[in-house]
Amino acid sequence: MLPDSRFLKQPKHFWANVRTISEQNGYTVRGKGQIKIPTKGELRSALAQVNLLADHLIDAKDVLTPLGTTLLDYFKFRADILNTFVEPRLMDAEQAKKAYEELSTRLIGTKLPVPMNKQKGEKKAPAFLTAMVNLLIEENADGLPCDHDPRSLTTITLGNAPLRTLSRRVDGAFPSSVNPIAIWEIKEYYYTTTFGSRVADGVYESLLDGLELEELREHENIDVKHYLMVDAHYTWWDCGRSYLCRILDMLHMGYVDEVLFGREVLERLPAIVKEWVAVVRKREQDAKKPSP
Predict the structure, then answer these.
(1) Contact 51, 107 (CB under 8 A)
(2) For position 213, what pLDDT does the model report?
(3) 3-state SS class at 186
(4) How many of the other CB atoms lie within 10 Å of CB of 156?
(5) N or C: which terminus of the chain carries fewer CB neighbours within 10 A?
(6) 203 and 109 in a common domain
(7) Same domain flag for 162 and 24
(8) Where among 44, 74, 89 does a domain terminate?
């Protein structure tokens, strides 16, 4: 899922209001399994709960300011896209297994190793989403290499020396973890029974990556695409809808270029990989041009 252009490049204080109001009002409608849309009155009451005023959102005549209007539009968008687009695309373990088996049968000639999950006993199985990501990249990469499991930190270089090195290892880099065009994180939790701190930490890890890539883009004019891929209906929807809201916020803050939810990997990733290939081929052509 790509961000909605209406909410990109909003100032930082816009997102401060999103977070504060969401935290005070709650992200979900209790008992209904839906994402909450605050009312105009709830904007005011949410800020009042932390001893803040809402004058910047609602004027003295009880009319929404431009900021307040955009804020409510965003809350409506966030709820609608999560309720109607994201939730139906999240898979459970059986659905993910079926999708993986269908894909691996179609791409039976691949020699990629099958990544396994970290479960034990009966739950030990292929890491379905990761395996599908790997297969789809391999199918669409036009023979270019890909680091499906980087064992080193992502590094951007200048003049054969490190320019920036990210703080943590990512789940994949194209074409490599040195000067990648794209990096990604995969958060699949098909067999977890609760939404624990480990799952929450996964969201904040991607936020850290996004902050570092933002700094690289702003100070060095180098753009590395950043993707987040998540799945497991029970974990993310039944238990973690508030974190799906945070992921949508992160996407529109520009810390992730695109988020793929569940079976959206099958729908969208082939086109994304072809975009990466086009960038590599252009770099190769540019490198062959004689210096002026």
Answers:
(1) no
(2) 98
(3) strand
(4) 18
(5) C
(6) yes
(7) no
(8) 89
Contact partners, residue 112, CB within 8 Å, separation at least 6: 134, 135, 138, 148
Can you tell me the distance from the alpha carbon of 69 to that of 63, in angstroms, rounded to the nearest whole number?
Answer: 9
The answer on 212 and 74 residing in a single domain is no
216 CB-near residues (< 8 Å, 6+ apart)? 156, 164, 222, 224
* Single-letter code of the amino acid located at 164: R
> Taking the mean position of all CA atoms in its chain, how far away is CA 180?
18
Convert the pLDDT of each residue in 252-282 to its tens digit.
999 999 999 999 999 999 999 999 999 999 9
Alpha-helical (H) ranges within 26-83 are 40-48, 66-81
Same domain, 151 and 116: yes
Q: Is the pTM of this model over 0.90?
A: yes
Please check whether residues 117 and 241 belong to one and the same domain. Answer: yes
CB 170 within 8 A of CB 183: yes
pLDDT at 202: 86
Residue indicated by tokens 């990761």:
130
- Among candidates 204, 210, 237, 264, which has minimal Cα distance to 27? 237
DSSP-assigned letter for residue 150: -
Alpha-carbon separation of residue 226 from 58, 97, 134, 169, 181 (angstroms): 36, 26, 16, 13, 9
Which domain CATH number covers 240?
A: 3.40.91
Element (H, E) at 231: strand 225-231
Q: Which residues pair with 61 in a beta bridge?
A: none
Indicate if 153 and 185 belong to the same structural domain.
yes
- The amino acid occupying position 291 is S
| Cα 135–chain centre separation | 19
Q: Which two tokens stand for residue 67?
A: 């900021």
d(CA 55, CA 39): 15
**Rounded average pLDDT over 231-244:** 94
Note the pLDDT of residue 115. Answer: 86
Domain of 278 in residue numbering reads as: 93-288
